[in-house]
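INFO batch 0412 | record 1 of 1 | parsing
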Amino acid sequence: MADFAVWAPQRQRVTLHTGGGEHPMHRTDDGWWHAHLPEAGHGSAYGFRLDDELPLPDPRSRWQPDGVHGLSRVYDHGRFDWRTDDWAGRPLAGGVVYELHIGTFTEAGTFDAAIARLDHLVDLGIDFVEVLPVNSFDGPWGWGYDGVAWSAVQQSYGGPDGFKRFVDACHDRGLAVILDVVYNHLGPSGAYLDRFGPYFAGSTVWGPSVNLDGPDSDEVRRLIIDNALGWLRDFRVDGLRLDAVHALRDQRAVPLLEELAIEVEVLAAHLGRPLTLIAESDLNDARLVTAREAGGHGLHAQWDDDLHHCLHTALTGERQGYYADFGSLRALADTLRSVFFHADTASSFRGRHHGRPVDTHRLPGHRFLIYLQNHDQIGNRAVGDRLSATLSPGLLACGAALMLCTPYTPMLFMGEEWGARTPWQFFASFPDPALAEAVRTGRRAEFGAHGWDEAEVPDPMDPATFARSTLDWSESDRPGHRELLAVYRRLIALRRSSAELTDPRLDRFGVDFDEQQRWLVLRRGTLRLVCNLADRPRRIPLDLPVDDVRYAVPELAADSTDSADDTAARGTTTDTASPGIELGPESFALIRVATTGH
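INFO prediction complete | emitting tokens
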């Protein structure tokens, strides 16, 4: 038997539509409509007929096996047989995150196929698997950010049972799961929420925006919070990555994000395991991750695009668009020390001052995610090219070291660890020809406005664009790729084994650099990460004599067959008058220095 309920405060009549006929629903004073149907059970199809319109899927649907325009199905969470009931969760601090897209992580593009690759992540040393959105969108493939059925898992990936099997398999291997969720807008096809009530409040460049602070917004906010809690409770995910929270239009005294943080804290206390909320924000405002007791929103972490931009420009030399303010090693060093490059400073791309300084004496580094690449920074390039398309293996290794040896929480994008050459391009599969053409032309015009050649922009509706973006797992064991994979594995293992590398205290973190000589040194307790980004050997001065070389990587030739070893640190000297180390071009060494009392 099943109880059905839907919020439709402005409708005169709502009817429950099932395969067995039409069933009238009764309205309560709060605008909710209810019906009880004893014969309905798991798998029963249903929808809601608003006044005399055609039946629509449930705004809170748990299952859409016939697509976002089809009828919903009753889904009973209690039917799933979980195998890892003893999972205790994992705190974000000290962890390493791995971002992946189910549709392109494997050739099959399903949860079950992804399970077969989880042991690779365990061997790599990953702690958190961050999954791009899996809620239902129109078409068989897409990024997931055009989702419209927030609580229903995309059927082409394996549906709700498939996602549960994936989460269960991750937990069985000691991997926590973070799910990317999108509450700032809905996709352009199948977004029926506004037919039920005042869910929308304008639009963004991506689609309809959500009514968070206008009349009748209480139930709208409740839909979002219930959805978030459902992923954490019913699907047992360990955290949520909240997409583009700067696009949430919310003027309430208690913002949605703070309200969500409070309810997630309550759920974590009940479940007895840590639950994590990570925000993507363009605001450069650490109040998001400041405790509520200190006047913040109480989220646990946020993405840090400034760190990405500094690393990207320092390694590639690119300066176009929003990269214009970045690029120098000074910018990289300052941002590594202070979290944000734009901290109430002028942003030429925005044409104004931007950001707020971070109190690095109080906030720990693990509340900010650092990354060389992610789905946005690759996929929103005209041809979806990765760093491996332009950087040498040596610079790729240096970038990995700079990311993994900071006090921040590192995040990898799938395939990055072996220098994958497959691009990750923007793709969608909207069946409606008019919408497909609008997305196609809009994408090209957007890149053209930013100086890209429109002719180079792949057709996002072409199945070949989706196919090109799928990982080629055979690359990971090829010469050049397997050596870089070994570097990532060793760096993550060193991070895990060294308390100095996981130490999140930003006020104990030092960075030295030489702009002209193109080198940086990260100071982590008695450890020093020494990076030579120049295309020629450098002797790099140190503050203290070298005690021992923990790990070093020489320049990695693309056709190299030798594993990186500790021989890359050349001409190491312990001269106390002028301590330093000699490194080959585009290489790094992680060393321990001799302290005064050593």
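INFO post-check: The longest helix spans residues 217-234.
INFO record closed
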